[in-house]
């Protein structure tokens, strides 16, 4: 019992661990899926914003390069002068930044405003080294020992300044003019494929929770299943637009990613469950076999105990000087010894017969016999017992055909066993009726008693080897549970069929069906 409990707890633990592992795997896959989707959306959002900015910034650069006169100019200059006595040289460094501001028509940028203020930033630096002598002599026309000049544009500074102004202006531009559905589809599909997300999706851009024209045909807003990121931030790093995407087959995709692992887990868990059920069944079967074995040993011991005791008493009586000279008493005791010996021999033969049947070693030769003759012969073996208990056996041999192919010896034993069973399970005087009738090409043999009967459960197992229905005291009916098992094996060997009809307290009827021969 303890082993069964431990096995059950182990099985429950294994199932729990497997379920927890699968649940954690699903959760991890969902988290990874969410991370990859949000990463793809962020990439698409930034890529679209950067593309828009670059497009208009290149336009801006071409415009300012073509325009000669700036509307306003601002100059910032730095002068640095240093003398080095050890080298007898003077270093002069000059640096300046020129900001040229332009007011251009915004129609060039197609953003719907009158004008846009933009600036060009130019930097210039100059480094010259003079000898101290020329500087002291204040000779301004003297050539420097070393001269380095640099001039260039601050593109990044210009771009940053342009971006800040551009965000203010474009925030008023309709979203469908800033981005196309085809661009979102191309970028999003590419990025999702990089993370092995190859399923259908629907997207949209919403403004303040309201749908815009930029969306796929099948998009439906589902708060619990929709991913979103901001797009087109304004000058305050805020935005009114959000890029949304959902995946109609998201759950199917996530489950398919762990399908192989789940299937293997299910298979191995099923194997463990089957093994557990099989082991449990074997344990119960072994327990039942152990109970049957103990019953068999107890009953066989009881069956042998009485004959042995009788034989010992008879031998002791014969050894008595007063008895040994009395031939009648000696013969009586010798007959008792002989009968008890035959009784023990019969028990041993029953066990040997059933054992040989199990091993298919019992040689059964069949001949054409009359079943009615076998019934009458069998009755002669037990009629004295029935008479001794003031009972009766009534014959109703009504079959018009009764020739069967059977072993005379073994089938007589079959009938004797059924009659003996009827006698043993009749608490009062045995009242037995034997019937035969013809049914088609078969003959039915019915042996009906008015004994104690049996339960429905007992009827299902009455032909099992060693089985005997318990009645509180296993010795109240003598036997070892082999008789009816032997009967069934012999009937089966004769291509026949045996069954029982019974009701507790109202007796039993055993029915044998055998094929007739012409």
User: Averaging pLDDT over every residue, what do you get?
Assistant: 77
User: What portion of residues is helical?
Assistant: 40-55%
Instruction: Report the CATH C-level class of the largest domain.
Output: Alpha Beta
- Please state how the strands of the largest beta sheet are arranged side by side: 10-12-13-15-14
Number of E strands: 15
Second CATH tier, the architecture of the largest domain: 2-Layer Sandwich
Tell me the span between the first and last alpha carbons. 58 Å
The overall number of domains is 4
Oligomer: single chain
EC number: 2.7.13.3
Domain Histidine kinase: 299-518
Transmembrane segments: 258-284
Pfam families: HATPase_c (PF02518), HisKA (PF00512)
Describe the structure.
This protein is an alpha+beta fold and 518 residues long. The protein folds into 4 domains: 1-53 and 174-247; 67-171, no CATH class; 253-356, Orthogonal Bundle (Helix Hairpins); 364-515, Heat Shock Protein 90, CATH 3.30.565.10. The protein is built from 13 helices and 15 strands. The strands form 4 sheets. A 5-stranded mixed β-sheet has the order 10-12-13-15-14, covered by helices on one side. It has a 4-stranded antiparallel β-sheet with strand order 1-2-3-4. A 4-stranded antiparallel β-sheet has the order 6-5-8-7, with helices on one face. A hairpin with a 2-residue loop joins strand 12 (431-439) and strand 13 (442-449).
Topology:
Blueprint: H1 2-66, E1 72-84, E2 89-105, E3 115-131, H2 132-136, E4 146-153, H3 155-170, H4 175-178, H5 181-194, E5 202-207, E6 210-215, E7 226-231, E8 241-246, H6 250-257, H7 259-319, H8 321-324, H9 327-358, E9 367-370, H10 371-388, E10 392-397, E11 403-406, H11 408-424, E12 431-439, E13 442-449, H12 456-461, H13 483-493, E14 497-502, E15 508-515
Parallel strand pairs: 10-12
Antiparallel strand pairs: 1-2, 2-3, 3-4, 5-6, 5-8, 7-8, 9-11, 12-13, 13-15, 14-15
Helix pairs in contact: 1-5, 1-7, 7-9, 9-13, 10-11, 11-13
């Amino acid at each position: 019992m303890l082993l069964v409990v431990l096995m059950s707890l182990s099985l429950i633990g294994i199932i729990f661990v497997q379920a927890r592992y699968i649940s954690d795997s699903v959760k991890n896959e969902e988290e990874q899926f969410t991370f990859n989707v949000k990463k793809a959306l962020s990439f698409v959002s930034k890529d679209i914003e950067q593309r828009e900015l670059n497009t208009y910034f290149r336009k801006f650069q071409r415009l300012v390069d073509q325009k000669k006169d700036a509307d306003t100019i601002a100059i910032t200059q730095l002068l640095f002068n240093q003398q080095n006595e050890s080298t007898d040289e003077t270093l002069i460094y000059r640096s300046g930044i020129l900001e040229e501001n332009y007011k251009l028509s915004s129609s060039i940028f197609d953003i719907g405003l009158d004008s846009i203020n933009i600036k060009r930033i130019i930097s210039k630096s100059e480094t010259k080294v003079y000898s101290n002598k020329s500087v002291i002599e204040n000779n301004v026309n003297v050539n420097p020992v070393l001269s380095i000049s640099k001039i260039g544009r601050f593109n990044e500074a210009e771009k940053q300044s342009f971006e800040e102004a551009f965000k203010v202006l474009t925030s008023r531009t309709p979203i469908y003019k800033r981005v196309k559905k085809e661009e979102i589809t191309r970028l999003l599909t590419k990025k999702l494929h990089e993370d092995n997300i190859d399923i259908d999706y629907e997207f949209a851009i919403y403004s303040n929770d309201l749908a815009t024209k930029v969306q796929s045909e099948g998009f439906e807003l589902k708060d619990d299943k929709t991913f979103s990121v901001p797009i087109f931030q304004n000058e305050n790093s805020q935005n009114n637009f959000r890029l949304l995407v959902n995946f109609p087959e998201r759950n199917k995709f996530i489950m398919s990613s762990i399908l192989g692992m789940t299937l293997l887990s299910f298979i191995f868990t099923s194997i463990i469950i089957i093994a557990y059920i099989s082991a449990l069944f074997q344990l119960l079967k072994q327990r039942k076999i152990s109970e049957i074995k103990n019953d068999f040993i107890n009953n066989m011991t009881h069956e042998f105990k009485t004959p042995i005791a009788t034989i010992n008493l008879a031998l002791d009586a014969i050894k008595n000087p007063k008895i040994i000279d009395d031939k009648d008493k000696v013969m009586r005791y010798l007959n008792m010894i002989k009968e008890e010996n035959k009784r023990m021999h019969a028990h041993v033969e029953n066990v040997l017969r059933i054992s040989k049947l199990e091993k298919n070693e019992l040689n059964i030769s069949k001949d054409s016999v009359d079943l009615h003759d076998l019934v009458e012969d069998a009755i002669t073996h037990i009629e004295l017992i029935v008479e001794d208990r003031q009972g009766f056996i009534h014959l109703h041999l009504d079959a018009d055909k009764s020739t069967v192919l059977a072993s005379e010896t073994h089938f007589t034993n079959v009938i004797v066993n059924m009659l003996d069973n009827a006698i043993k399970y009749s608490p009062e005087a045995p009242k037995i009726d034997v019937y035969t009738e013809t049914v088609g090409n078969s003959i039915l043999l019915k042996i009906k008693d008015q004994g104690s009967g049996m339960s429905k459960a007992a009827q299902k197992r009455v032909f099992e080897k060693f089985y005997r229905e318990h009645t509180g005291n296993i010795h109240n009916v003598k036997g070892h549970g082999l008789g009816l098992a032997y009967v069934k094996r012999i009937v089966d060997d004769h291509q026949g069929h045996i069954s029982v009809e019974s009701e507790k307290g109202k007796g039993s009827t055993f029915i044998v069906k055998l094929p007739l021969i012409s």
